[in-house]
């Protein structure tokens, strides 16, 4: 993938600074816990989208309906032709998860701030304090298409691929959780203790590729295209097969999905967003423990 293509989905701090007053651009912080992020400090002019309260369905374990998404976008001053730059807490996990959702709902121009809050803070760039959001004129938004087919894999699809022997042959399952989650030593990271699963381990046949390999730990920025390609290919993740990523609730899986699809140009990548929180709670679902796929 060319550097020009990369720049269409990634922006840097300078780009954000240059567009803070641009009415065609909306800077959006996406947080799992705004009390430790946006409400403490945020980029000047940025609006807040709360992952659990704003993007999750109020009743089902699913995402908000297109009509609810439209209202949310309009309330943040976003229209269909708005350029959206996303960043957020937890290493940009939920910002990239939102990118995945925005693309599933057909938004044309959405980008990720490379390095997110980490890089912005390291460079001591301007911030605003407190929970009060800026108010913008109401947007005009209409979801023109919903494309789950090329973005989302469901439990029954993954199970079918296992029973048909497709995993490893035509499909690569990529477990992007930490090594201890993959082996089954722990069932969830300690910061997510409220979302435990019944069993630990991984989906049989899944290869381990911890999401953090893709970023610079000091700045939160993505590694170079060359380094990313070397890392994923050395893990046996190749573009001629369909790739399905998963983690625990989908946020880290979306991060690796973004790397594969948008930075490396892999043609067929989906997120199993049910991930281990679903798989590890289903009676009879096949599970493997240990370091082997």
UniProtKB/TrEMBL annotation:
GO molecular function: thiosulfate-cyanide sulfurtransferase activity
InterPro entries to which the protein is assigned, alphabetical: Rhodanese-like_dom (IPR001763), Rhodanese-like_dom_sf (IPR036873), Thiosulfate_sulfurtransferase (IPR051126), Thiosulphate_STrfase_CS (IPR001307)
Gene3D superfamilies named among the record's database cross-references: Rhodanese-like domain
A Pfam entry, by short name: Rhodanese
Rhodanese domain location: 21-129, 167-288
PROSITE patterns in the cross-refs: RHODANESE_1, RHODANESE_2, RHODANESE_3
Keyword Nucleus attributed: no
Protein name per its UniProtKB record: Sulfurtransferase
């Amino acid at each position: 993938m060319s550097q020009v293509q990369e720049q269409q989905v990634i922006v840097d701090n300078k780009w954000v600074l240059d567009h803070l007053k641009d009415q065609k651009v909306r800077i959006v912080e996406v947080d799992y816990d705004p009390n430790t992020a946006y409400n403490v400090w945020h980029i000047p002019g940025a609006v807040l989208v709360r992952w659990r309260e704003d993007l999750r369905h109020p009743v089902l374990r699913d995402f908000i309906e297109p009509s609810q998404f439209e209202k949310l976008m309009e309330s943040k001053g976003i229209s269909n032709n708005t350029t959206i730059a996303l960043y957020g807490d937890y290493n940009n996990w939920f910002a990239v998860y939102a990118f995945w959702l925005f693309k599933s709902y057909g938004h044309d121009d959405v980008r990720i701030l490379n390095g997110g809050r980490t890089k912005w803070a390291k460079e001591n760039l301007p911030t605003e304090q407190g929970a009060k959001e800026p108010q913008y004129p109401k947007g005009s938004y209409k979801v023109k298409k919903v494309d789950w087919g090329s973005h989302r894999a469901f439990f029954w699809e993954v199970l079918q691929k296992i029973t048909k022997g497709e995993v490893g042959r035509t499909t690569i399952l990529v477990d992007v959780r930490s090594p201890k989650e993959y082996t089954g030593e722990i069932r969830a990271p300690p910061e997510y203790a409220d979302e435990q699963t019944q069993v630990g381990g991984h989906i049989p046949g899944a290869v381990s590729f911890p999401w953090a390999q893709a970023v610079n730990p000091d700045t939160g920025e993505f590694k170079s295209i060359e380094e990313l390609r070397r890392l994923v290919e050395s893990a046996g993740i190749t573009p001629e097969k369909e790739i399905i990523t998963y983690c625990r609730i989908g946020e880290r899986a979306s991060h690796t999905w973004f790397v594969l699809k948008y930075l490396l140009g892999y043609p067929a990548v989906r997120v199993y967003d049910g991930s281990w929180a679903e798989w590890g709670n289903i009676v009879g679902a096949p599970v493997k423990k240990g370091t082997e796929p």
